[in-house]
From TrEMBL:
Organism encoding this protein: Ureibacillus yapensis
InterPro entries to which the protein is assigned, alphabetical: PDDEXK_4
Pfam families, per the entry: PDDEXK_4 (PF14281)
Biological classification of the source: Bacteria, Bacillati, Bacillota, Bacilli, Bacillales
Stated name of the protein: PD-(D/E)XK nuclease family protein
Amino acid sequence: MEIRDLFNLENDATFQQLNQQVNSFNTLKVLKLENHEIRHSNILGWLLNPRENHGLRDYFLRKMVEHLILSEENSNNVQYETVGDILNQSLMDSHVYREVKTTNNRFIDLLIVNQQTKTVLLIENKFYSTESKDQLDDYLNFIDETFKDFTIIPIYLTLDGEEPTNKQYFILTYERIESILHAVLMLYKDQISDNVYKFIEDYNQVLKEKFYPNQTQILQAIEIYRNHKQTIEGLIEESPALKQLHFESGYQFEFIMKYWDTIQYVNKHGQNILSYSFEQFIQQQFDGQVHYKAHPTVPNLLPPEWEQISRFPVKEANYWLGKGLIVGLNKQMIVDCV
């Protein structure tokens, strides 16, 4: 890799624009929160506590319980109706506990106890990891023994709705947590302090990036990767060097250190298989002579025989390729042509 390759990449306006977006300031990203499950539990514990200083009272807790009912996966849970009854009562007297130790020396991530309603919410949080052998059974047995006269609602919180081994647990996803945070940001902007709002906004952004990747940024990454493929791949190959001490740094090392997050983003999203496969499909089936867009998640085209619809005006000029029509393709059709 020559130094001029790095100059070309650094002076690419799209690369600089993407770099600003990828590295926009976020307090929680600075703390590397997104990679540590225990820190997610700490934030959730704060949000779920009605008496904390966020000013939301029991809103977040109540919405989380509502989403247990809204999740179709929970409709067959034997305590489905019981959850609805909980919402008919005040949750302001709920107390949140973190890292509750069981008799088997395991630690429950979150425990929410309400003495007034005789209810306990047990939350096992798995952001990246998976459950250990008999872990969920152990937690539930411990809580059943400790709170004999209480209604126990066990919850298994994961990124993608992983099914728990113990069927008594309700399924909850971080995508639903993000939707609650989104509602908070819309409804409580004028009711909570600026510091609290910014903190929740930062956390919401961390979760949003997990489930709703920015399509504009992905398109930028694809463009950058195509224009600087060898440079990006060369820089990625040098990544192991970042873990070593450097006493004689050169321009390439300084470049990697300065733009590492953006380089990783381009390498991850720039190699968009769906986009590339769709373009090959267009070339093979239509020899490129068709109006299309190789979007990274929703690629689309306008077959030549449908060009006549161009004479019909649409309400919004950019609705879809300037046309009021959407065409769906079976994924297998694309695979078969590549």
